[in-house]
Amino acid sequence: MDALNFLSKKEEVEKEINELKSQIEEKKRVLETLVSNQNKHNLTNWEISRYSRQILVPNIGIKGQESFKNGKVLIIGAGGLGCPAAQYLAGCGIGHIGLVDYDEVEENNLHRQLLHQENSIGTSKVRSAAQALRSINSHIKVDEYPVQLNSLNAIQIMQSYSVVIDASDNPSTRYLVNDACIMTKLPLVSGSAVGMEGQLTVYNYKGGPCYRCLFPDPPPPNTVSNCGDAGVLGPVPGVIGTMQALQAIHILLESEGVLSSKLLLFDGADTKFRTVKLRGKSAGCVVCGENPTITRLIDYEQFCGAPANDKHAAVNLLKPEERITVSELRTALKEKGKPVVIDVRSKTEFDICRLPGSVNIPLADIEKQSAQNTLKSVISKSPNPNEPVYVICRRGNDSQKAVKKLRELMLLNQDFFDVRGGLHAWARDIDHTFPIY
Predict the structure, then answer these.
(1) What pLDDT, on a 0 to 100 scale, did the predictor assign at position 38?
(2) Mean pLDDT highest for which of 13-17, 40-44, 271-275, 370-374?
(3) Is 309 annotated as ligand-binding?
(4) Which residues are catalytic?
(5) Which is deepest, 29, 305, 335, 404, by most CB within 10 Å?
(6) How buried is 252 (Cβ within 10 angstroms: 0-12 exposed, 13-18 middle, 19+ buried)?
(7) Confidence grade of residue 197 (pLDDT, cut at 50, 70, 90)
(8) Which of this chain's residues are annotated to bind ATP (predicted)?
(9) Quick one: pLDDT at residue 113?
(10) Is 181 annotated as a binding residue?
């Protein structure tokens, strides 16, 4: 083959190679287009595998899972409601979860706050819950706010999120969170649980009412019950907290299942749910109405007349000379021949633990004046009917109320004394084996 023919043949082969390369590139572009049309989403293969069972749900699908991945949910309270809410949101793949709680894990939390473990006792609830969430799903972001939410930090914390879950347990925090949600234009999923009952609603969603629309004035502090006073069965906040997670998911999906202007009631005793319709948005609401008068966060503890936490503050209703210490009570029990000791806790609490020889007459009966005959009978049978009567309760608050009422009744001209600090002080200072609840 001469040189001219060689060059001609070489050019022909090179041309064929270039044409084949062009065809290959074109086929690659077609394949990429096909793949792109098939997978128009930002989910990884790992995410598709992990969340496949909920992606298969028609109401969720790929689009819904992407909404979860991009979702930002703030949970106020890492307790009985916040734990199940956070647990299920993390499991569903909500990409960004924030936790706010000032408290530490206590032993009496563990029966219902299942993100916390026995080795978490004494540690920050936020830290404990965050570690548990990361162990459930290492691909989500969890922000930790181990602080008490207040008027100075609420908006700064909340403005980074798209949905807020109120899992707190006191009116002061509820009003604070509501007002902050109005000012940051965030929907609020609000739940509560005590005893065997729970309830759930969504505020400030697509023209629906806010908390203040329905409750413009806070309840009297002495009418508010919490788990520490009334108790709670563990699965009940579990049900409500899980439903709060579901409501946050409905909001992220913009689905029809949002409980705006509706209140879900759960009766754990009879295992019944019912939904009632709520009043709509109030034009005269002071925070979300047509002419709001509250345009910045206020002092909510002052507004509600109660602290923004579930800790029990000591009250002082009696003069110092109308009260005795647990040491003085122990001396009286030893030296005065079994004086009358009235325990004003509920019967359920009295069954848990009691001082030997004490008599149970609940505060509620004393306040209704339905215990006068019982009290007279107890005092009259005492070996020393003229001796003072000592009144005790759990922490030394209800006993003061009882003493005031008993002195008003002036039964048998008897003198009544409250035991400062109640049975908690007795366990702390006198008998370390006495149970605390």
Answers:
(1) 58
(2) 271-275
(3) no
(4) 227, 393
(5) 404
(6) buried
(7) very high
(8) 80, 101, 108-112, 125, 169-170
(9) 98
(10) no
Residue 101 annotated as part of some ligand binding site: yes
Helix (H) or strand (E) holding 392: strand 389-392
Q: Is 210 annotated as a binding residue?
A: yes
Asked whether residue 281 is marked as a ligand-binding residue, the answer is no
Distance of CA 274 to the CA centre of its chain: 21
pLDDT tens for 27-81 read 777 666 555 545 678 899 999 999 999 999 999 999 999 999 999 999 999 999 9
Q: What is the pTM of this model?
A: 0.80
Any binding-site annotation on 169?
A: yes
From residue 131, how far is each of 61, 65, 90, 124, 126 by CA, in Å?
29, 23, 12, 11, 9
Q: What is the DSSP letter of 173?
A: H
pLDDT digits (tens, 9 = 90+) for 313-337: 677 889 999 999 999 999 998 876 6
Collapsing DSSP states into helix, strand and coil, what is residue 410?
Answer: coil
- 327, amino acid identity: S
Cβ-contact 419, 329 below 8 angstroms: yes
The neighbour count for residue 216, using CB atoms within 10 Å, is 12
Residue 177: strand, helix, or coil = helix
Distance CA 368, CA 11 (A): 110
Spatial separation of the C-alpha atoms in residues 344 and 335, rounded to whole Å: 23
Q: Which residue has the higher pLDDT, 343 or 42?
A: 343
